[in-house]
Amino acid sequence: MPKVTYVSAGGHRTELELPNGLSLMEGAMNNNVAGIESECGGKCACATCHVYVDEAWLDKLRPSGALEDELLEGTASERRPTSRLSCQIKSSAALDGIVVHLPQSQS
Ligand code: FES
Question: What is the number of the ligand 1 atom nearest to the C-alpha of 71?
Answer without folding.
Answer: 3
